[in-house]
Amino acid sequence: MTSETQLRIDLAAAFRLIHEMDMHESVANHLSAAASSDGKQFLMNRRWMHFANVTASNLQFLNSDDDSVMDTDDAPDTSAWSIHGNVHQALPEAKVILHVHSTYATVLSTLKDPRILPIDNNTARFYERIAYDTNFGGIATSDKEGKRILDTFASKKALMMGNHGITVVGDTVAEAFEDLYYLEKACKTMVLAYSTGQELNVLPHELALETAQSWDDFRGAAFAHFEQLKGHLDQKGSSYRD
């Protein structure tokens, strides 16, 4: 398992990169990463801290089995605790959880049919690999809503949250970030394709499946991409490692 120090550095980098890519929202949205093998102990951004100010050292260490933190001055955001706390507690395989309201994913999530159709390589990446939740229950500030969202993942590593946004889970920060990156690109492609008003040229089922599976051969690219992006942050003198 990745050391906590390295995990903090990588997660902090993800915050800074998501900010630079304009996929953040005010001082809302949350990213988290399991710091224990059972996933119940995890790191997450503190309540109302802007993504541009997150560093390795100011990430909050939480335990999903201990909700007493919610009665303290250091309580995390209630919606973050509801979603991330429940997922980390119940799904140890969800090592990293990234939840954002990025522009194109959120636009697509508001459609009656928010599906990502296989119309190119990037959209096909998620063919039959993303779950859809079309039962929006408002801002997820209750434990009940958090558990409902948890149940919608259906063993998938990405979730389109109707009228809300997107969430991805992954084994590492690099892999989860890569899926988030491509998911927003796929949603942008869908929104722009719909905007033409022309009929979509959707790939046939077998070809879409084959294309999705072909992406598995490029999983290593996630680490190369993430390391080079961290390098760019370093060149800019970013404080994310602090």
Shape type: globular
- Give me the secondary-structure category: alpha+beta
Output the radius of gyration: 17 Å
Question: Which spans of ≥5 residues are poorly predicted at pLDDT below 50?
Answer: none
CATH architecture verdict? 3-Layer(aba) Sandwich
> Within the CATH hierarchy, at the fold level, what is the topology?
L-fuculose-1-phosphate Aldolase
Distance between the termini: 21 Å
Helical percentage: 40-55%
> How many strands, what sense, and barrel or not for the largest sheet?
7 strands, mixed
Strand content: 5-15%
Q: Count of helical segments?
A: 8
**Based on DSSP secondary structure assignment, what is the total number of beta strands?**
7
Task: Describe what this molecule looks like in 3D.
It is a single chain. The protein is an alpha+beta fold and 242 residues long. The chain has a single domain, classed as Class II aldolase/adducin N-terminal domain (L-fuculose-1-phosphate Aldolase). Helices cover 40% and strands 13% of the residues. It contains eight helices and seven strands; from the N terminus they run αβββαβααβαββααα. It has helices spanning 4-20, 78-90, 103-109, 121-124, 143-151, 173-195, 205-214, 221-235; strands at residues 30-34, 41-44, 60-63, 96-100, 131-133, 158-161, 165-170. A seven-stranded mixed beta sheet has the order 3-2-1-4-7-6-5, sandwiched between helices. α6 crosses α8. The chain is globular, with a radius of gyration of 17 Å. The mean pLDDT is 95.
